[in-house]
Amino acid sequence: MQRTTAGKRSxxxxxxxxxALMTAMLATPLALCASPASAAAAAAAVDPREALRESxxxxxxxxxxxxxxxxxxxxxxxxxxxxxxxxxxxxxxSAFVYDNALAGIALIACGQRDAARRVADGVVAGVTRDRHxxxxxxxxxxxxxxxxxxxxxxxxxWDDKAKRWYEDRYQVGTATGNVAWAALLLLxxxxxxxxxxxxxxxxxxxxWIDKETYNADAPAAFVxxxxxxxxSPQRQGWKSTEHNVDxxxxxxxxxxxxxxxxxxxxxxxxxxxxxxxxxPGEGRFAIGTRDDGRTLNAAPSALDASLWPLIAIPDAAGxxxxxxxxxxxxxxxxxxxxxxxxxxxxxTEGTGQAALVLRASERDAASLWPVLMAQRAPSGLLFATxxxxxxxxxxxxxxxxxxxxxxxxxxxxxxxAWAVLAAVGWNPFQPGGCLGRRCDAAATAPRxxxxxxx
Length: 454
Description:
The chain has helices spanning about 10-25, 30-35, 35-40, 50-65, 90, 95-110, 115-130, 175-195, 195-210, 240-255, 260-275, 305-310, 320-330, 350-360, 370-375, 415-425, 435-440; strands spanning about 75, 95, 140-145, 145, 155-160, 165, 175, 215, 220-225, 235-240, 280, 285, 330-335, 335, 380-385, 390, 405-410, 410. The protein has about 450 residues and is an alpha+beta fold. α4 crosses α16 and α8 packs parallel to α10. Residues about 1-35 and about 40-45 have low confidence and may be disordered.
């Protein structure tokens, strides 16, 4: 973990730093909305990376502290935009597991172990106290707030016109990548606390991926997961570069603590698929396959698919550095980065990802800190995008009739967490958050830490 002198400042000094940056930015018209260049000029007198780290850590910690008690929690993924419309039904109570995994890891990076523990315990509850499943999977989302005793509640909304309760079919399903991300949080929590329940639950989750989602048809890989309600959700046969990056990282990390050969085998399987998706002619990764699990889906370009392999598989990253040039030329927009090639606006989450990968690659990320800080909402979370809406070119699920996966101008937990990870210099794919060359020398032998029953 990279440290700055800010860690030694008093709370009052930290607050003055953040207030100074925000005052400078607010002095520039529309700085919070969409003016990275003007935000950069206004923030020149302070260190925007340091301010981003401090404000982001405070915002995430406050989200946990706002939920009474010290038990397990699920954090809401979105807030209503200031002065805007209420959140739509599917987002009003939704705590996406991916966002919570990121937030929990970011809290560990911030040094907020107790807050991270509450989020990690929420994940453990989701796996072990599902209303139907007992096989190690986790849903894509849960109801935000304190996790009660008994089955962990899922998000949903009441439609007054139809007089019925609805649940979103994606949210109640299980995506392979989300399971792997939740396992990454638990592995990070195990390292931070040595509580055995985190390692045990991560083991159970990765066993589910290994058993339920591997498909040996060429190119062999772990498929997308399951969509829809129990007891018979729809299996999704497409194979995602991003999901297999996630699975590789979690399998490899787990193999450090457990000598069971299936973890190393799983990591090797996922890695081979990611290597297959490298497109040397363009210098980027394809996003994966189509629904048949065999045909390359070569046309779209997704920022995360091109960037994550560089920090998840650092020993191979030297062969893939051109992906950074691809990302800049094809995804660059308004001083930041968009989700897909030829983007229609900044994707805050992806801009944070780019900043972290640039740091890991020992390239300059300085221009991205004021861009990220410019997305800070009054609540402290970062907006998912400064635009009203940006497209991804992807579909939410198999019953989608159009490319209906968008990001909106809403304060977003996941975007905030990625920005914090970038500002701290913490790699969520690696033990100890190691970044850059430090990961090349990371030990791969099984570890012998003494677990706690806590």
